Amino acid sequence: MKVGISMVNSDEEMNYQRGNLDTLAYRNNWMPHPEFAFKWKTSKLTELKGNASFNRTLPSLLDCIDYFDDTNPMNIVMGNSKLSATNSLNALLQYSIMFTKGQQMLNMTTGYTRNDSPIREALFYNSKSGSYISTKVNVDSYNKWSIGANYDRSLGEYFRLVNSIGADIICNHGVKTRTHI
Questions:
Q1: 3-state class of 62 per DSSP?
Q2: Mean pLDDT of the chain
Q3: Is residue 108 within 8 Å of residue 151, measured between CB atoms?
Q4: Residue 154 and residue 142: Cα distance in Å, rounded?
Q5: Whole-model pTM?
Q6: Cα four-point dihedral sign 113, 143, 64, 128
Q7: pLDDT digits (tens, 9 = 90+) for 61-78
Q8: Are 102 and 153 a contacting pair, CB within 8 Å?
Q9: Which residues are paired to 161 by β-bridges?
């Protein structure tokens, strides 16, 4: 069994200068990254493995500044000071069994991934000017469930038979285009 936690210090500074806007931005964050892993050999031929981890990702510092960049009037870019970090949880469980007759192995795997508040780009269309305004926003969580099986068998010294099957269920959210902000 392995349990660990790492602390990552993110210390950023940025000087943004565009047109009339001159901004100095600074951010200092401590982010924990815990992880857990185990391996259990139930017999000489069977094994159960699993791991889980948590990760936190910050948006870019430029995206977190309230700015309005209209240097290209057909594609205006806006910052969003309300952006929050994306939190990710990953978990995986794997069961393996070996059969000595025919040098066979069967692996079964299941996994789960969840991303809270992922960052997506939102586009707003202004029909009067024909221009687009884009900004980054946090959307609802992303979930993924996966399950799979893998069968491997030796067919002599130079050949192997490998069969794999898997399925994923994904729930993902996007951003609709709006005509106004």
A1: helix
A2: 87
A3: no
A4: 39
A5: 0.76
A6: positive
A7: 888 888 888 888 888 888
A8: yes
A9: 153
